[in-house]
Amino acid sequence: MSVDRLLAEVRTRLVRLKPLEAAEAVREGARLVDTRPEYQRRADGDIPGAIVVERNHLEWRLDPHGGFRIPEATDHHVRWIVICDEGYSSSLAAASLRALGLANATDVIGGFQEWRAAGLPVSRGTAPVRPRLAPYDGR
């Protein structure tokens, strides 16, 4: 199995969204989660309203039964839309979330690059938005 084959396989189980579709889903209550690392967000900007959770913390922050979840991770029915830089790692991340039982998880086709190209909002502050962390519970 190669990563390209794995990517193609997991995408058959996702209903991926174009950037405009993702923006509309967010307006309807879905949660957009930006997994890009800080250096990419610093270089290109942030998506206003997106929840920033870097990829290495994603499952721990979004698992509704986990001790390291963020407040928005209320149950398995939350519609999570993952966005990365170009839409590759976000597909693998969405598949991982679905394996945790988050059946509504998906991602954005083309990632942040396509989001920006579609003319959707991007903000550029002096520093990127800080990733969302959960309080440490002693484990």
From TrEMBL:
Residues 26-124 form the Rhodanese domain. InterPro entries: Rhodanese-like_dom (IPR001763), Rhodanese-like_dom_sf (IPR036873). This is Rhodanese-like domain-containing protein.
